[in-house]
Amino acid sequence: MSNQPLTAGFITKNFGRYNPMSLDSYLSIGGYEALKKAIKMDGEDIATLIANVKVKGRGGAAYDMGKKWSQSRAVIKPKKVVICNADEGEPCTFKDREVIKNDPFNLIEGMTICGHVVNAQDGYIYLREEYRHLRERLQNAIDQATEKNLLGDNILGTGFSFHIHLYSGAGAYVCGEGTALIRSIEGKGGRPRMKPPFMKVSGLFALPTTVNNVESFAIVPHLLMDDKGYYGSFGSGESIGTKLISVAGNVNNPGVYEIPFGTTVRDIIYGLAGGVKDGRKIRLIQFGGASGKISDERILDTPYTYDDLKAAGVTVGSGAILVIDDRTTVLEFLRHTQDFFVHESCGQCTPCREGNLHIQIILKKLAEGTATPDDLRYMKKIATVMTTASLCGLGESAQNALFSAMEVFPETFKLGGAH
Amino acid sequence: MAEEVMINLKINDIPVSVPKGTKIIEAAKKIGIDIPHLCYHPDQRVKARCRICSVEVKGKNRLLASCSTEVWEGMEVHTETEIVRDTQVGILQLIMADHNQDCLTCAKNGNCDLQTLCSRFNIQKSSLPNVCKYKTAPNTNPSLVRDPSKCIKCGRCIRACKDAQGVQAIGFSGRSHNLVATMPFNMDMAKTDCILCGQCSLVCPTGAIMEKDDTRKVLDWLQDPSKHVIVQIAPAVRVSLGDALGLKPGSIVTGQMVTALKMLGFDKVFDTNFAADLTIMEEGHELLHRIQNGGTLPMITSCSPGWVNYLEKHYPEMIPHLSTAKSPMSMFGAIAKTYYAEKMGIRLDDLITVSIMPCTAKKYEAARPEMGRHGHQDVDAVLTTRELAKLIKYVGIRFDMIPENTFDSPLGTGSGAGAIFGATGGVMEAALRTVYEKVTGKEATPLEFEDVRGFDGIKEATYDLGGTQVKVAIVHTLKNAKVILDKIKCGECDYTFIEVMACPGGCIGGGGQPYGTTNEIRRKRIAALYEIDKGLTLRKSHENPDIITLYKEFLGEPLSEKSHHLLHTHYTQVHKAYEF
Question: What is the pTM of this model?
Answer without folding.
Answer: 0.93
